Amino acid sequence: MAPPSKRQCKPAAKPHRRAQAKKGPKPQKKPSRASVGLLDASIPSHLPGPRSCASYTVVRDRLDVPLQTGASDQVAVIGGYMSRQSGTNQDHMSSVVFISGAGADIPGTTETLTSSTFMAGAATGSYDVSLHALSVEVLCDGTSGGQVPNGAIYVGVPEMGIERTSYATWAAMATAFKTKKGMSRFTAYEVMNRPQKIVTYPLDAVAFSSFCPITSVANSSCFHGRALCPIVVILPANLNLVDFTFRVHLHWRLRANTDALLQSTQTTHTPAPEQLWATLTNGLSAVGGLVSQAPAAYAAAQQGYDTMNLIGATMNKLSRAAPLMLEM
Residue 12: is its pLDDT beyond 80? Predict the structure, then answer.
């Protein structure tokens, strides 16, 4: 009988470690600042909505709103405001985007209403609009006397629609919102050295995808819409008279009704997957909309436009569809 060959005596090879390891679901990565930048209204390239719709034009707007501390807590509520037309049940988008007040009753003469530059100049009834993105930079300009600003400032995105008439006074609103989920506390000195940026996200999916007519109504009867979560800032009562500036960035989706020239500029946008929207919304919700508390990759994405390449690769992994076309 012939002796066994070397190949027959050789033991069977063990399976590779990678083959032995059990394949489980990959852990989800937290959204980086570069991806959170897709919801930032101050960055030109923005993530399209999660639902497909007819063509529209993108309009960007920015306004600076100065606000000074006083003897009472100042409350600023920033977001898209609606106005219900008399005799109808249809809500129109008001030109108001910023309402602030202190101390006295709500609504009252102490309210300050600031309108969007674009919305105030748009022809009433000629366009349908939707507020697609909103971000606010809180800048502390210091005090008029050169003193070090003191006191605590509260900023954040409470995940709720705010009805001002639900509170008796602005002071009561300030007390209620200091402890709300999504609110963060900073000292005025911290904000002076490092401005804070807040990025909001959708509150109601149906309202977020809806277009509505424009109205020039800008009075105390305006109520906060439910498309985006409001951004709330509470300034402390301070005798040093600390000066703050709110830099509000707005991203509007505009659809013309009568202007044929503007209609020719409207284009359709491929909707982004809801999984990507869910990832970004969950990430912003966890930090109260404060992009300063996200990973450090955001700075590079804000200075350059490498965000488009990053999100294009992310989109290809999430859905095997065509490359994502960002709103420009």
Answer: no
Tokens of 42: 């101050």
pLDDT at 76: 92
Q: How many helices (H) and strands (E) does the chain have?
A: 11, 14
- pLDDT at 300 (0 to 100): 40
3-class DSSP state for residue 156? strand
Integer-rounded Cα radius of gyration of the chain: 25
* 304: helix, strand or coil: coil
| Gap between the terminal Cα atoms of the chain | 81
d(CA 11, CA 184): 64
Which two structure tokens, joined as six digits, stand for 235? 């300034």
pLDDT digits (tens, 9 = 90+) for 260-312: 677 888 888 888 888 888 888 888 888 888 876 544 434 444 444 344 445 55
Residues in contact with 299: Cβ distance below 8 Å, sequence separation at least 6, in sequence order: 33
Domain layout of the chain by residue ranges = 29-52+268-328, 56-267
Quote the pTM value. Answer: 0.78
Q: What CATH architecture is 56-267?
A: Sandwich (2.60)
